[in-house]
Amino acid sequence: MTVPGLLVAAPRSGSGKTTVTLALMRALRRRGLRIRGMKCGPDYIDPAFHQAATGEPSFNLDSFAMAPALLDTLAASSAAAADLVLAEGSMGLFDGVRAAANRSGANSDIAARYGWPVILVIDVSGAAQSAAAVALGCRAYDPRLTIAGVILNKVASPRHRRLVEDGMAQAGLPVLGALSRDAGLVLPERHLGLVQAGETADLYARLERLADIAEAGIDLDKVVAAAGGAVPAGVGHTPLPPPGQRIAIARDEAFSFLYPHMETGWREVGAELVPFSPLADEPPPDDCDCCWLPGGYPELHAGRIAAARRFLDGTRAFAQTRPVHGECGGYMVLGQAIEDAEGVAYPMLDLLPVSTSYHRRKLHLGYRVARVTADNALGRCGATLIGHEFHYASVTSPTPTEGTSFARIADAEGTDLGFTGHRCGHVTGSFFHLIATGD
Prior knowledge:
24 strands, alpha/beta, Rossmann fold, single chain
Protein backbone atom coordinates (compact mmCIF):
# COMPACT_ATOMS: atom_id res chain seq x y z
CA MET A 1 0.00 0.00 0.00
CA THR A 2 1.30 3.45 -0.88
CA VAL A 3 -0.04 5.15 2.25
CA PRO A 4 3.04 6.96 3.64
CA GLY A 5 4.42 6.58 7.13
CA LEU A 6 6.91 8.05 9.58
CA LEU A 7 8.69 6.71 12.63
CA VAL A 8 9.17 9.09 15.56
CA ALA A 9 12.27 7.81 17.36
CA ALA A 10 15.11 9.04 19.56
CA PRO A 11 18.69 8.14 20.47
CA ARG A 12 17.58 7.08 23.98
CA SER A 13 14.63 6.75 26.33
CA GLY A 14 13.32 9.85 28.03
CA SER A 15 13.88 12.14 25.03
CA GLY A 16 10.21 13.07 24.62
CA LYS A 17 9.04 10.69 21.86
CA THR A 18 5.56 10.25 23.29
CA THR A 19 5.03 13.97 23.81
CA VAL A 20 6.10 14.77 20.24
CA THR A 21 4.16 11.86 18.76
CA LEU A 22 0.91 12.86 20.48
CA ALA A 23 1.43 16.50 19.55
CA LEU A 24 1.89 15.58 15.88
CA MET A 25 -1.05 13.17 15.89
CA ARG A 26 -3.46 15.68 17.36
CA ALA A 27 -2.27 18.59 15.21
CA LEU A 28 -2.47 16.58 11.98
CA ARG A 29 -5.87 15.24 12.99
CA ARG A 30 -7.01 18.86 13.32
CA ARG A 31 -6.04 19.33 9.70
CA GLY A 32 -8.48 16.62 8.71
CA LEU A 33 -5.93 13.89 8.03
CA ARG A 34 -6.77 10.33 9.01
CA ILE A 35 -3.86 9.37 11.26
CA ARG A 36 -3.20 5.83 12.48
CA GLY A 37 -0.74 5.40 15.30
CA MET A 38 1.47 2.39 15.86
CA LYS A 39 3.91 1.54 18.65
CA CYS A 40 7.19 -0.24 18.03
CA GLY A 41 7.99 -2.85 20.64
CA PRO A 42 6.12 -4.19 23.67
CA ASP A 43 4.08 -1.39 25.23
CA TYR A 44 0.44 -1.58 26.30
CA ILE A 45 0.03 2.01 27.57
CA ASP A 46 1.08 4.28 24.69
CA PRO A 47 -1.39 2.79 22.14
CA ALA A 48 -4.28 3.99 24.30
CA PHE A 49 -2.88 7.54 24.16
CA HIS A 50 -2.52 7.20 20.37
CA GLN A 51 -6.17 6.22 20.12
CA ALA A 52 -7.22 9.19 22.24
CA ALA A 53 -5.18 11.54 20.03
CA THR A 54 -6.30 10.15 16.65
CA GLY A 55 -9.68 8.60 17.33
CA GLU A 56 -8.43 5.37 15.77
CA PRO A 57 -6.98 2.13 17.21
CA SER A 58 -3.21 1.79 17.51
CA PHE A 59 -1.38 -1.54 17.17
CA ASN A 60 2.09 -2.66 18.24
CA LEU A 61 4.75 -3.75 15.76
CA ASP A 62 7.46 -5.96 17.25
CA SER A 63 10.11 -7.45 14.96
CA PHE A 64 11.28 -9.94 17.60
CA ALA A 65 7.97 -11.23 18.92
CA MET A 66 5.93 -11.09 15.71
CA ALA A 67 6.39 -13.16 12.58
CA PRO A 68 6.74 -11.12 9.37
CA ALA A 69 3.23 -12.14 8.27
CA LEU A 70 1.73 -10.73 11.46
CA LEU A 71 3.74 -7.50 11.17
CA ASP A 72 2.48 -6.99 7.62
CA THR A 73 -1.10 -7.82 8.58
CA LEU A 74 -1.12 -5.21 11.35
CA ALA A 75 0.71 -2.56 9.33
CA ALA A 76 -1.57 -3.11 6.33
CA SER A 77 -4.69 -2.92 8.50
CA SER A 78 -3.59 0.47 9.80
CA ALA A 79 -2.49 1.82 6.44
CA ALA A 80 -5.76 0.82 4.78
CA ALA A 81 -7.68 3.17 7.09
CA ALA A 82 -5.28 6.13 7.07
CA ASP A 83 -3.83 9.01 5.13
CA LEU A 84 -0.65 8.78 7.21
CA VAL A 85 0.77 6.15 9.57
CA LEU A 86 2.67 7.66 12.49
CA ALA A 87 4.65 5.07 14.46
CA GLU A 88 6.29 5.77 17.81
CA GLY A 89 9.52 4.06 18.76
CA SER A 90 10.49 2.67 22.14
CA MET A 91 13.81 3.16 23.95
CA GLY A 92 16.53 4.20 21.51
CA LEU A 93 16.22 3.87 17.73
CA PHE A 94 18.60 0.89 17.51
CA ASP A 95 17.99 -0.70 20.92
CA GLY A 96 16.97 -4.34 20.70
CA VAL A 97 18.15 -7.83 21.47
CA ARG A 98 20.79 -10.04 19.90
CA ALA A 99 18.79 -11.95 17.31
CA ALA A 100 18.57 -12.76 13.62
CA ALA A 101 18.87 -9.95 11.11
CA ASN A 102 15.79 -7.71 11.05
CA ARG A 103 14.34 -9.55 14.09
CA SER A 104 15.99 -7.64 16.96
CA GLY A 105 12.88 -5.86 18.21
CA ALA A 106 14.51 -2.49 17.52
CA ASN A 107 12.56 0.42 16.06
CA SER A 108 15.02 0.50 13.17
CA ASP A 109 13.82 -2.92 11.96
CA ILE A 110 10.30 -1.57 11.49
CA ALA A 111 11.41 1.64 9.74
CA ALA A 112 13.60 -0.40 7.39
CA ARG A 113 10.91 -2.99 6.64
CA TYR A 114 8.37 -0.40 5.49
CA GLY A 115 10.71 2.33 4.28
CA TRP A 116 9.33 4.80 6.80
CA PRO A 117 11.58 7.86 7.19
CA VAL A 118 12.64 8.63 10.76
CA ILE A 119 12.04 11.84 12.67
CA LEU A 120 14.57 12.01 15.49
CA VAL A 121 13.50 13.63 18.74
CA ILE A 122 16.62 15.05 20.35
CA ASP A 123 16.67 16.12 24.00
CA VAL A 124 19.04 19.07 23.77
CA SER A 125 19.12 19.93 27.47
CA GLY A 126 22.74 20.10 28.51
CA ALA A 127 24.05 20.30 24.93
CA ALA A 128 24.16 22.67 21.98
CA GLN A 129 26.13 21.91 18.79
CA SER A 130 27.09 18.52 20.24
CA ALA A 131 23.47 17.39 19.82
CA ALA A 132 24.15 17.32 16.07
CA ALA A 133 26.92 14.76 16.56
CA VAL A 134 24.43 12.43 18.23
CA ALA A 135 21.91 12.89 15.42
CA LEU A 136 24.63 12.45 12.81
CA GLY A 137 25.68 9.20 14.43
CA CYS A 138 22.11 7.92 14.20
CA ARG A 139 22.03 8.79 10.49
CA ALA A 140 25.31 7.00 9.82
CA TYR A 141 24.73 3.92 11.99
CA ASP A 142 22.24 2.05 9.80
CA PRO A 143 22.31 2.56 6.01
CA ARG A 144 18.82 1.04 5.71
CA LEU A 145 17.26 4.15 7.25
CA THR A 146 16.42 7.64 6.06
CA ILE A 147 16.58 10.34 8.73
CA ALA A 148 14.03 12.90 7.54
CA GLY A 149 14.97 15.48 10.15
CA VAL A 150 15.05 16.28 13.83
CA ILE A 151 12.70 17.85 16.34
CA LEU A 152 14.49 19.53 19.22
CA ASN A 153 13.07 19.01 22.69
CA LYS A 154 13.72 20.92 25.92
CA VAL A 155 15.17 24.01 24.25
CA ALA A 156 16.15 26.49 26.97
CA SER A 157 16.10 29.81 25.07
CA PRO A 158 16.20 31.37 21.58
CA ARG A 159 20.01 31.55 21.82
CA HIS A 160 20.17 27.87 22.78
CA ARG A 161 18.02 26.98 19.77
CA ARG A 162 20.24 28.97 17.40
CA LEU A 163 23.34 27.16 18.66
CA VAL A 164 21.73 23.74 18.26
CA GLU A 165 20.44 24.61 14.79
CA ASP A 166 23.93 25.76 13.75
CA GLY A 167 25.25 22.32 14.63
CA MET A 168 22.43 20.56 12.78
CA ALA A 169 23.04 22.71 9.70
CA GLN A 170 26.73 21.78 9.75
CA ALA A 171 25.72 18.11 9.90
CA GLY A 172 23.22 18.55 7.06
CA LEU A 173 20.22 17.60 9.21
CA PRO A 174 16.94 19.51 8.74
CA VAL A 175 15.34 20.88 11.91
CA LEU A 176 11.60 20.30 11.61
CA GLY A 177 10.69 22.02 14.85
CA ALA A 178 11.50 22.70 18.48
CA LEU A 179 9.76 22.46 21.83
CA SER A 180 10.83 24.44 24.87
CA ARG A 181 11.37 23.17 28.40
CA ASP A 182 7.88 23.05 29.86
CA ALA A 183 6.91 20.92 32.82
CA GLY A 184 3.30 21.28 31.72
CA LEU A 185 4.03 19.12 28.68
CA VAL A 186 5.04 16.13 30.78
CA LEU A 187 2.39 13.45 31.16
CA PRO A 188 2.06 11.93 34.66
CA GLU A 189 3.90 8.67 35.31
CA ARG A 190 3.93 5.76 37.73
CA HIS A 191 6.11 2.67 38.16
CA LEU A 192 5.20 0.95 34.85
CA GLY A 193 5.32 4.10 32.71
CA LEU A 194 2.69 6.72 31.98
CA VAL A 195 -0.47 6.84 34.03
CA GLN A 196 -3.02 5.14 31.79
CA ALA A 197 -4.90 7.27 29.28
CA GLY A 198 -8.24 6.57 30.96
CA GLU A 199 -6.87 7.77 34.32
CA THR A 200 -5.08 10.89 33.07
CA ALA A 201 -6.89 13.99 34.29
CA ASP A 202 -8.02 16.37 31.53
CA LEU A 203 -6.52 14.10 28.87
CA TYR A 204 -8.25 15.75 25.93
CA ALA A 205 -7.39 19.22 27.16
CA ARG A 206 -3.77 18.09 27.41
CA LEU A 207 -3.90 16.72 23.85
CA GLU A 208 -5.32 19.98 22.54
CA ARG A 209 -2.55 21.91 24.26
CA LEU A 210 0.03 19.59 22.67
CA ALA A 211 -1.55 20.24 19.28
CA ASP A 212 -1.34 24.00 19.88
CA ILE A 213 2.36 23.63 20.71
CA ALA A 214 2.97 21.51 17.60
CA GLU A 215 1.27 24.08 15.40
CA ALA A 216 3.41 26.84 16.92
CA GLY A 217 6.74 25.03 17.09
CA ILE A 218 6.84 22.33 14.37
CA ASP A 219 6.69 22.73 10.59
CA LEU A 220 3.78 20.37 10.01
CA ASP A 221 3.91 20.79 6.23
CA LYS A 222 7.48 19.52 6.20
CA VAL A 223 6.59 16.66 8.49
CA VAL A 224 3.81 15.48 6.17
CA ALA A 225 6.03 15.95 3.10
CA ALA A 226 8.76 13.83 4.72
CA ALA A 227 6.51 10.76 5.02
CA GLY A 228 7.14 7.84 2.69
CA GLY A 229 7.49 4.11 2.35
CA ALA A 230 4.95 1.41 1.59
CA VAL A 231 3.32 -1.52 3.35
CA PRO A 232 2.73 -4.89 1.66
CA ALA A 233 -0.74 -6.36 1.68
CA GLY A 234 -1.57 -8.27 4.86
CA VAL A 235 -2.49 -11.95 4.89
CA GLY A 236 -4.94 -11.98 7.81
CA HIS A 237 -2.51 -13.54 10.27
CA THR A 238 -3.95 -14.00 13.80
CA PRO A 239 -1.54 -13.37 16.73
CA LEU A 240 -3.05 -16.10 18.92
CA PRO A 241 -6.15 -18.27 18.46
CA PRO A 242 -8.90 -17.09 20.83
CA PRO A 243 -9.13 -19.12 24.03
CA GLY A 244 -12.92 -19.24 23.74
CA GLN A 245 -15.89 -18.13 21.67
CA ARG A 246 -17.27 -15.69 24.28
CA ILE A 247 -14.39 -14.36 26.36
CA ALA A 248 -15.08 -12.55 29.62
CA ILE A 249 -12.34 -9.90 29.93
CA ALA A 250 -11.69 -7.96 33.13
CA ARG A 251 -11.44 -4.28 32.25
CA ASP A 252 -11.00 -1.39 34.67
CA GLU A 253 -8.19 0.59 36.33
CA ALA A 254 -6.73 -2.61 37.81
CA PHE A 255 -6.96 -4.76 34.66
CA SER A 256 -6.17 -3.03 31.38
CA PHE A 257 -2.98 -4.39 29.81
CA LEU A 258 -4.16 -6.40 26.83
CA TYR A 259 -2.57 -5.67 23.47
CA PRO A 260 -5.02 -4.10 20.98
CA HIS A 261 -3.83 -6.42 18.19
CA MET A 262 -4.77 -9.41 20.34
CA GLU A 263 -8.34 -8.22 20.89
CA THR A 264 -8.75 -7.28 17.23
CA GLY A 265 -7.35 -10.63 16.07
CA TRP A 266 -9.80 -12.53 18.26
CA ARG A 267 -12.76 -10.52 17.00
CA GLU A 268 -11.73 -10.97 13.38
CA VAL A 269 -11.97 -14.76 13.69
CA GLY A 270 -15.40 -14.57 15.31
CA ALA A 271 -14.79 -14.43 19.07
CA GLU A 272 -16.89 -12.10 21.22
CA LEU A 273 -15.24 -10.11 24.02
CA VAL A 274 -17.44 -9.36 27.02
CA PRO A 275 -15.98 -6.83 29.52
CA PHE A 276 -16.60 -6.88 33.26
CA SER A 277 -15.13 -4.91 36.17
CA PRO A 278 -13.69 -6.61 39.25
CA LEU A 279 -13.33 -3.20 40.94
CA ALA A 280 -17.08 -2.73 40.49
CA ASP A 281 -17.48 -6.17 42.12
CA GLU A 282 -18.70 -7.79 38.91
CA PRO A 283 -18.13 -11.53 38.33
CA PRO A 284 -17.27 -12.90 34.89
CA PRO A 285 -20.56 -13.21 32.96
CA ASP A 286 -21.89 -16.73 33.24
CA ASP A 287 -22.77 -16.97 29.54
CA CYS A 288 -19.07 -16.82 28.60
CA ASP A 289 -16.94 -19.89 27.99
CA CYS A 290 -13.57 -18.43 29.01
CA CYS A 291 -12.30 -15.72 31.37
CA TRP A 292 -9.21 -13.55 30.86
CA LEU A 293 -7.67 -11.41 33.59
CA PRO A 294 -5.21 -9.00 31.92
CA GLY A 295 -2.34 -7.25 33.60
CA GLY A 296 -2.64 -3.82 35.11
CA TYR A 297 -2.26 -2.39 38.59
CA PRO A 298 -3.91 -4.78 41.07
CA GLU A 299 -1.20 -3.89 43.61
CA LEU A 300 -2.69 -0.39 43.77
CA HIS A 301 -6.20 -1.74 44.35
CA ALA A 302 -5.55 -4.89 46.39
CA GLY A 303 -7.86 -3.88 49.23
CA ARG A 304 -10.81 -3.26 46.91
CA ILE A 305 -10.23 -6.53 45.07
CA ALA A 306 -10.02 -8.48 48.33
CA ALA A 307 -13.37 -6.98 49.38
CA ALA A 308 -15.11 -7.67 46.05
CA ARG A 309 -17.04 -10.76 47.15
CA ARG A 310 -19.20 -11.14 44.03
CA PHE A 311 -16.11 -10.99 41.82
CA LEU A 312 -14.16 -13.47 43.98
CA ASP A 313 -16.96 -15.98 44.45
CA GLY A 314 -18.14 -15.68 40.85
CA THR A 315 -14.65 -16.23 39.42
CA ARG A 316 -14.07 -19.25 41.65
CA ALA A 317 -17.36 -20.75 40.48
CA PHE A 318 -16.56 -19.96 36.84
CA ALA A 319 -13.17 -21.68 37.15
CA GLN A 320 -14.76 -24.94 38.23
CA THR A 321 -15.98 -25.64 34.70
CA ARG A 322 -14.29 -23.20 32.26
CA PRO A 323 -10.81 -21.86 31.50
CA VAL A 324 -9.50 -18.81 33.35
CA HIS A 325 -6.14 -17.26 32.41
CA GLY A 326 -4.30 -14.40 34.09
CA GLU A 327 -1.41 -12.32 32.76
CA CYS A 328 0.95 -10.51 35.15
CA GLY A 329 -1.46 -8.57 37.38
CA GLY A 330 -4.20 -11.05 36.54
CA TYR A 331 -1.88 -13.87 37.55
CA MET A 332 -1.25 -12.14 40.88
CA VAL A 333 -5.00 -11.91 41.53
CA LEU A 334 -5.45 -15.62 40.70
CA GLY A 335 -2.94 -16.36 43.46
CA GLN A 336 -3.24 -16.61 47.21
CA ALA A 337 -2.30 -13.09 48.29
CA ILE A 338 -0.86 -9.74 47.16
CA GLU A 339 1.33 -7.70 49.49
CA ASP A 340 0.97 -4.01 48.67
CA ALA A 341 3.61 -1.26 48.84
CA GLU A 342 3.02 -0.75 52.58
CA GLY A 343 3.55 -4.42 53.34
CA VAL A 344 -0.12 -5.26 53.92
CA ALA A 345 -1.11 -8.67 52.51
CA TYR A 346 -4.59 -9.06 50.98
CA PRO A 347 -6.15 -12.44 50.17
CA MET A 348 -6.92 -13.05 46.51
CA LEU A 349 -8.73 -15.79 44.54
CA ASP A 350 -6.49 -18.66 45.74
CA LEU A 351 -6.95 -20.50 42.45
CA LEU A 352 -3.20 -20.81 41.87
CA PRO A 353 -0.45 -21.55 44.45
CA VAL A 354 1.38 -18.24 44.14
CA SER A 355 1.79 -15.24 46.46
CA THR A 356 3.31 -11.96 45.33
CA SER A 357 4.67 -8.80 46.89
CA TYR A 358 4.92 -5.25 45.60
CA HIS A 359 6.47 -4.30 48.95
CA ARG A 360 9.59 -6.32 48.03
CA ARG A 361 10.07 -4.70 44.63
CA LYS A 362 12.42 -5.99 41.97
CA LEU A 363 12.40 -5.15 38.27
CA HIS A 364 11.66 -8.05 35.90
CA LEU A 365 11.99 -7.03 32.26
CA GLY A 366 12.51 -8.72 28.91
CA TYR A 367 11.15 -10.90 26.14
CA ARG A 368 10.02 -14.40 27.03
CA VAL A 369 9.85 -17.41 24.72
CA ALA A 370 7.65 -20.00 26.38
CA ARG A 371 6.85 -23.64 25.75
CA VAL A 372 3.56 -24.66 27.32
CA THR A 373 3.93 -27.60 29.72
CA ALA A 374 0.39 -29.02 29.34
CA ASP A 375 -2.66 -28.67 27.11
CA ASN A 376 -4.76 -25.61 27.98
CA ALA A 377 -6.94 -22.95 26.37
CA LEU A 378 -3.87 -21.16 24.98
CA GLY A 379 -2.33 -24.11 23.19
CA ARG A 380 -1.29 -27.71 23.20
CA CYS A 381 1.59 -29.03 25.29
CA GLY A 382 4.84 -27.87 23.71
CA ALA A 383 3.26 -24.93 21.86
CA THR A 384 5.48 -21.85 21.65
CA LEU A 385 4.23 -18.50 22.88
CA ILE A 386 6.19 -15.25 22.71
CA GLY A 387 5.64 -12.41 25.11
CA HIS A 388 7.19 -9.80 27.32
CA GLU A 389 7.63 -9.40 31.06
CA PHE A 390 7.68 -6.02 32.80
CA HIS A 391 6.79 -5.80 36.48
CA TYR A 392 8.19 -5.03 39.92
CA ALA A 393 6.32 -7.66 41.92
CA SER A 394 8.30 -10.47 43.57
CA VAL A 395 7.08 -14.03 44.07
CA THR A 396 7.16 -15.05 47.74
CA SER A 397 5.88 -18.62 47.28
CA PRO A 398 7.83 -21.70 46.11
CA THR A 399 9.02 -21.94 42.50
CA PRO A 400 6.67 -24.00 40.32
CA THR A 401 7.64 -27.50 39.25
CA GLU A 402 7.15 -28.91 35.77
CA GLY A 403 3.95 -30.57 36.98
CA THR A 404 2.44 -27.33 38.31
CA SER A 405 3.91 -24.74 35.90
CA PHE A 406 2.28 -22.99 32.97
CA ALA A 407 5.40 -23.00 30.78
CA ARG A 408 9.15 -23.30 30.57
CA ILE A 409 10.66 -20.03 29.41
CA ALA A 410 13.83 -18.64 27.89
CA ASP A 411 14.91 -15.06 27.30
CA ALA A 412 15.45 -13.49 23.88
CA GLU A 413 18.94 -15.00 23.58
CA GLY A 414 17.74 -18.49 24.44
CA THR A 415 18.95 -18.59 28.05
CA ASP A 416 16.82 -21.04 29.99
CA LEU A 417 14.95 -19.31 32.82
CA GLY A 418 13.20 -22.42 34.12
CA PHE A 419 9.53 -23.01 34.79
CA THR A 420 7.15 -20.11 35.21
CA GLY A 421 3.53 -19.48 36.01
CA HIS A 422 1.09 -22.06 37.30
CA ARG A 423 -1.76 -24.27 36.21
CA CYS A 424 -4.39 -25.89 38.36
CA GLY A 425 -7.48 -27.46 36.85
CA HIS A 426 -8.94 -25.02 34.32
CA VAL A 427 -6.86 -22.12 35.67
CA THR A 428 -3.54 -20.90 34.21
CA GLY A 429 -1.44 -17.81 34.66
CA SER A 430 2.02 -16.31 34.28
CA PHE A 431 3.83 -13.01 34.57
CA PHE A 432 4.50 -12.56 30.85
CA HIS A 433 2.12 -10.75 28.50
CA LEU A 434 1.40 -12.66 25.32
CA ILE A 435 2.22 -10.99 22.02
CA ALA A 436 1.99 -13.83 19.49
CA THR A 437 2.48 -17.51 18.89
CA GLY A 438 5.91 -18.71 17.93
CA ASP A 439 5.01 -19.84 14.40
